[in-house]
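OP here, attaching both records as promised.
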Amino acid sequence: MKKVWGILLSMILIIGLTACGNTDTAQEEASAPAAENTSAAASAAEEESVPATEAVSENGKTYKIANLVKQLGTAWYQRQQLGLDQINEEYDNVECFMVGPETADASEQVKIMEDLIAQGVDAITVVPVSVETLEPVCQKAREAGIIVISHEAAGMENVDYDVEAFDNASYGSHMMDLLAEAMGEEGQYATTVGFLTSKSHNEWMEAAVARQKEAYPNMELVVDKIEENDDTQTGHDKFQELVKTYPQLKGILVSSMSGTQGVGLAIDEMELNGSVSAIGTCIVSVSGDYLESGALTATTFWDPAGAGYALNKAALLALEGETIEEGTDLGYNGYHSITMNGNVIYGDDVEEATAETMSQYPF
């Protein structure tokens, strides 16, 4: 019996050793192609290392930046989109995109911003219809770690930076100087804002009126800050009402692009060209016909593409942890050497067009 058990034990040991040997061999055989595949993958990654490095930021992240505007589809924001497109072309580590309501509505902007927070975007740039309405949701975004940068909202609290194309008081004063010259520095005039909650519009008109009182005492303000709701039809209708109430009206300052278009249309229809001087914020692609007809005396504006570029460049710098300070170059005409007041960034991009000069502007 002992002899039998000895034979059985020897056989078990031989089988075990053989199995171990086969396993080691299988592992070695399996490891060879795996090593070859790993090497091939490493070689492929090495070949693509340059574009791969360019495709991400220094911390290996591709940033998503949402641009929340007042109203999608307008000529102004179509032009601003070009600034986003240029950023996307120049920087492989950024994906900029534009969102906004179909009509200028602060409550709709809040809903869109809530959705962007839920999506977990890295930064939001916003042109608020109402600063007060957007403040709480901007705070919520920042608490979620999202960089928030505003435009046309100097003094907004819950943002990392606000980007302005220029000093708002200087812009408003300049509009008044143009209107005063057109009116011969005398007569009745009125002012408008897109919304009473539109921060920049209010600053422009307040500065304009202050300039009039200081420099043009023979001019008389009859109605201040007519709310034209950033809407062409509303601007048109309210101007007609204004002229019926003040038939001696000689001038008007208009804040929004759509409002300016509406006033120009009303002046054409009422055949008041040359009788009422109108200065408004509007790009030439929208105001050109009214400048040619004399319904609009002049328009003032800034390049929306430049603003779009500067907003996203500022967001990218902030995301990368870089300091934005006096003299920083944001990479676009009008923003090559910014000035600052607290967290407000000021460019120097004030443009104006008349019937004689509007051909200089391709937008």
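Record two, same layout:
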Amino acid sequence: MKKKIICLFVVLTLAGLNCLSAQMTKAQLQNMYVTYLRAQGYSPSVDSDGDVNFTAHGQRFYIDVMEDDLQSFRIVLTNFIDIGPASNRLRALEAAGLEINTTKTIRFIIASNNRIAIDSFIFVGRPQDFELHLNRMVNNIITARTDFLARLGR
């Protein structure tokens, strides 16, 4: 009986957390991100797609506002370099692969136009928990960018 009560408590607690999180709208998420970034000294803005843009370390980032998955948080350093002709693609893939193995929570995205972006994606317990991770995610992306460019000789 005691185990059933504990299990019921856990299920109801988790359901309650999900209900609270499910009530956040895209506008509320945007406001939460913008408010935090302003308090940290950034100058955020919301673009036409609803993403929250900001500049850190001289680079332009955006937060992917995902109201359909409130336990996910993703930031992106957009199209920071053009790798040039298709012949450079293999070198870029090799450099990105090496960097992914050494820097946590990052991923390189090579678009069809040979522009590269880096993102960092994590799971959070509550949407507000992004505050605990944002600076480290930005620093990881900046480190990955620097190391990637060095591997390419740029």
